[in-house]
Structure formats: structure tokens, C-alpha cells
Amino acid sequence: MHLFAKLSASLIRVPSRLLAGVVLAACMLPGAVIATTAASPAPVAEGDGYRYYAIGDLAAARPGPVEPGLMLVGGGQWPHDAFRWMIERAGHGHIVILRASGAAEAQDEFYNDIGGVASAQTFVFSDRKAASDPAVLAALEAADGIFIAGGDQANYVRYWKGTPLNAVLDRHVRDGKPLGGTSAGLAILGAWAYGAMDGGSMTSKVALRDPLDPGMTLVADFLHLPYLGHVITDSHFAKRDRLGRLVAFVAKLRSEGVADVVGLGIDEDAALCIDGDGVGRLYPGDEGGFAWLVQPTRPPARVERGRSLEFSDVRVTGIGADSRLRLPGLEVQAPAFEKIADASHGKLVLRDAAPAARAASR
After folding, report:
1. CA of 28: how far to CAs of 32, 68, 125, 194, in Å?
2. pTM of the model
3. Residues in Cβ contact with 27 at an 8 Å cutoff, skipping those fewer than 6 apart
4. Which residue of 181, 205, 301, 346 pairs with 308 in a disulfide if CB–CB is 3.0 to 4.6 A?
């Protein structure tokens, strides 16, 4: 069935005031121009398990070539220079946004506030079945760049993991196209993700007190992205005091035999952009911010249910605007700060790195 017919068949409701000039879900019909406005909250279409929004010219030719890139955004306000970096790598073409809450906010920021894209489309998921919908998959296959919005990462795990959409996301990156995510969308980009599958949000206090607490719901074998194959990510980092929980995430995985896992936290309003060679550059927010690389230097001494984490000599390296993170080899050039973290008796203590440790991080 032609994509236009497929999406039309799944259509539940399209407001009559939007019918003129609307193109549905990446049909790419010649000459078609999206007629929606940023002020309109109404979806262009509703399918089985999703709502669909769009703005821009879906039929426009992509102005430039695509390049690989990963944009890891810590949540909060968007650092627009990082998004311009991603848009450039998408060839100033067509962006598809995935989310499980909200509406067209992100696509309107891409198209109206940042600019430089031919179109932006949004799929808001409410059921796992949408991750197998041919219209959704076709729009993602045609995307020049994909962005995963914030929300609740448990929904992303439940709706997408192990689905055809999951495979398309992996293939999108393998094909040399950029992918970005913020907050919950960042949480799922690593080889392991904190899934928040119990409906809560793990705190550093609980994680340090009991690194095997039932709320430590770490998810593996979801996305499989280059340079992040040994990384677990975390967002809203300094503002929500998440260093302790990221250290505990790494300790839990190390205790399960994942010998090379490291943590990578991103501060709110900041983004770490990783190019096709695996080199990361930080774009801080207006008030600064860092990425935080968490690297154990030895196995944890104790990771037991109901007992506090014992984990010493964990290297914590700050990545600032002048730093460069080389993910092959985990080298940080011009680090913003270098600390050592020790977890004991339910607390995390930071101390300055010794000169030998600082030299090793360069």
C-alpha cells in the first residue's frame, strides 16, 4: 500500500481547518508544503498508538550532505549552537522528533526558533504497536536527522525496545546520519540505560545506600550506537546531584561482569556533541555546565543488596567548552576539572586527583 494511503487509512481525526495543504507522515509528495503553524496544538493526524505533527516542506530537497554525529543534551534549555551543529550534519534537511508525551514543542523550536531545516515532524507515542507502523518507519527511514525528546524513558523502553523502530534508529546512525536526545532521550543513548522502570527516579542517596535497590533498573541491548558501546549516560547532572547514582550505576554493572563500562553525565542546559571520529565537544548553557566522565580505576569493593556501596578511586573528569573528549581511548584534552570519588557508608566524597591520575586523563 502506498504510504499516503496507509497513513490515511490509519487516520482517526484530522481537523478540517488543517486539511488544505497538509502532507501526512513523510509522504514526500511533489510540491507538498506543510501548512501548520507553531501556534496550533492540533495534530496533523492520529494513527494507531501515535499522534503526528509536521511543519515545513516535506518535499524539499535536502540542501547539503549528511554527516555522522551524536548530540547528548542534558535536559533543560536547549543550547542552540549544539542544535545548529546537529542541523548542519543533517544537511539542513528533514528532522524527525520522537517522544511519548507533549506535542509539537520541539519541532517548532527546531523550525521556528533555531531554523535552517527543511521540515520537522513529530511522532508522539502512546502504544508499542506504533513502533511497527509502516508510516512511522517510513518517515524515520527518510529522516536526515532524528531527535529523541525528554519525558519518561520507561515509556521509550516499553514502546521501542526490540521493535522495528529500534532497528531503524540503529540503522540511521550506521548510515552516517545524526541522532540526538535530551533528558530521557539522552538516558537511552548509551549501551546501558537507567530505565526508571519502577515508575520512580533513583536518587544518589538511595543508590549509594543500596546499589542493588529494586529501583536500580538498568536496561541493556536497546540502542547500539558507535563510541557509546561501553557507556551509561545520565542527564540533569549537577542540578539534580546525580554523580552518586551514576557511580552506583557503574558499580552495579561492573559487579555484573561489565568490565569496561564508564559513566557519562551531562549537565542541564548543556550538550556534548560527538563527531564521526568519536571526538566530543561540549556546548555549555548560558550559565556554564559540563559533561562528567566517570571512570573506575579498580573494581568496587562491595555491591550487595541492602548494604552501602564501597567503591574507591573512581576518576571523575570534567569536560568543559575548551575540552575535547576522545571516546576511542577515553582521553580528555584540557579537562575542566579532575577529581577522585570515594563511595563509603552511603556517602560520596570528592577529592582532588593526584598528579599521576591527572596526567593519565590527558
Report:
1. 7, 23, 22, 37
2. 0.88
3. 3, 4, 7, 58
4. 346
